[in-house]
């Protein structure tokens, strides 16, 4: 009987194929990216190091709050960490002595794109 209830619960649950993760940086910029559920936390770190950070050797960590939970295990799956369907993750910076350096041209491009879309939609005059 218990197995049947679990089966029915599983059949009624929604099936997600990706996780939409918003990454909030210390300078208040937010970047949204989609990750497959079987990708790892290490893949998110690699994405940030290769595409977003100017210095890929900078030490940083990912966390959610409340409650505060740091994601330090690079082998943990996005699905197993319940980061689906939508999650706001914060990017914490270990070295507070120097500024956190992002590839700002990427953010300027996105801001320009959003502004152009708002102009087309008559949201900005």
Explain this structure.
The chain is built from 3 helices and 5 strands. The chain is an alpha+beta fold. The protein has a single domain, classed as Phosphatidylinositol 3-kinase Catalytic Subunit, Chain A, domain 1 (Ubiquitin-like (UB roll)), CATH 3.10.20.90. The protein has a 5-stranded mixed beta sheet with strand order 2-1-5-3-4, with helices on one face. Strand 1 and strand 2 form a beta hairpin. The N and C termini lie far apart (62 Å).
Largest sheet: 5 strands, mixed
Indicate the structural class. Answer: alpha+beta
Number of helices: 3
What would CATH call the class? Alpha Beta
Alpha-carbon Rg, integer: 18 Å
The neighbouring-strand order within the major sheet is 2-1-5-3-4
> What integer is the average pLDDT?
78
What are the SSEs and their pairings?
Layout: H1 2-12, E1 18-24, E2 30-36, H2 41-52, E3 60-64, E4 69-71, E5 86-93, H3 104-120
Parallel strand pairs: 1-5
Antiparallel strand pairs: 1-2, 3-4, 3-5
Can you summarize this structure?
With 125 residues, this protein is an alpha+beta fold. The chain has helices at 2-12, 41-52, 104-120; strands at residues 18-24, 30-36, 60-64, 69-71, 86-93.
Fill in the keyword field for this structure.
single chain, 125 residues, alpha+beta, Ubiquitin-like (UB roll), five-stranded mixed sheet, 32% helix, elongated
